[in-house]
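Key result, reporting period 2: structure in, sequence out.
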């Protein structure tokens, strides 16, 4: 594949675990378990396809509205996933990052996140960012508050978009090139709303546990065919592409 048409950073909204289990007359937890196991497979597939950064939405600031038993099961799953995956993450050169409002996390999850992030900090192959208790609106607001704390004598009027970027939870990751949502809905649901301003969106009806390496390749193929203009005209983009290939003399 032409490496310039390969996204550096893929973000995924892993939707459809509940419907996956409902279709099989199984409890929702089974769908989440299958979802966790699918995450493992997709991380591996991303490494094989030379993707550098993968960011997944595991729990949104709105997911607290779910039944308390489901919330407890999900948090339990995150703790167990982090514990069981540390060895594999290290072996594969994966650097783990967890983003979101951690203030409401149970202590066990806090400790497990700290341990897993510290132990994988040297990973160079892929950054796996897991968004837990994350919301794009929360992220923008916390970034502004953090900027203000760091610049107590400056006025918000002096804040630029570039200055805010280092305070976003995703820093220093590049913005996602491709955002995939499984499960048939076509919306961002408050995921990386600032960072996705120019991201290519890909929606599929496949439920998350069914989204396999072949489905990932289809998303990559769709991405490779898109022309990213970043606000420029078609002509500007074409002449830039030609210049890169050495076709023009400029
Ligand atoms: C959406 O499916 C999924 C979630 C809210 C949880 C995502 C969690 C996992 C994929 C588990 C693995 C993650 C980690 C980090 C171990 P849904 O329940 O909204 O499905 P539905 O729309 O069909 O009800």
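The corresponding designed sequence is given below.
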């Amino acid at each position: 594949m032409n490496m310039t048409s390969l996204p550096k950073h893929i973000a995924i909204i892993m939707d459809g675990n509940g419907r996956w289990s409902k279709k099989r007359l199984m409890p929702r937890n089974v769908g989440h378990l299958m979802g966790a196991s699918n995450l493992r497979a997709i991380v591996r597939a991303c490494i094989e396809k030379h993707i550098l950064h993968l960011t997944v939405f595991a729990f949104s600031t709105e997911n607290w509205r779910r039944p308390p038993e489901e919330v407890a099961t999900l948090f339990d799953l995150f703790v167990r996933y982090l514990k069981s995956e540390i060895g594999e993450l290290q072996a594969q050169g994966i650097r783990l990052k967890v983003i979101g409002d951690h203030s409401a996390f149970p202590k066990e999850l806090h400790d497990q996140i700290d341990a897993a992030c510290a132990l994988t900090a040297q990973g160079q192959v892929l950054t796996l960012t897991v968004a837990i208790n994350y919301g794009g609106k929360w992220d923008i607001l916390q970034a502004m508050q953090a900027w203000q704390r760091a610049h107590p004598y400056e006025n918000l009027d002096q804040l630029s978009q570039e200055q805010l970027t280092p305070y976003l939870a995703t820093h220093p990751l590049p913005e996602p090139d491709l955002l995939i949502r499984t499960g048939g809905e076509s919306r961002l649901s408050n995921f990386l709303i600032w960072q996705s301003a120019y991201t290519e969106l890909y929606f599929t009806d496949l439920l998350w546990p069914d989204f396999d390496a072949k489905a990932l390749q289809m998303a990559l193929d769709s991405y490779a065919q898109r022309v990213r203009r970043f606000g420029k005209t078609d002509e500007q983009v074409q002449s830039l592409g030609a210049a890169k290939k050495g076709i023009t003399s400029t």
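Confidence is low (pLDDT under 50) at residues 246-250. Strands lie at 9-13, 53-60, 94-99, 126-134, 178-181, 200-203. This case is discussed further under Risks and Mitigation.
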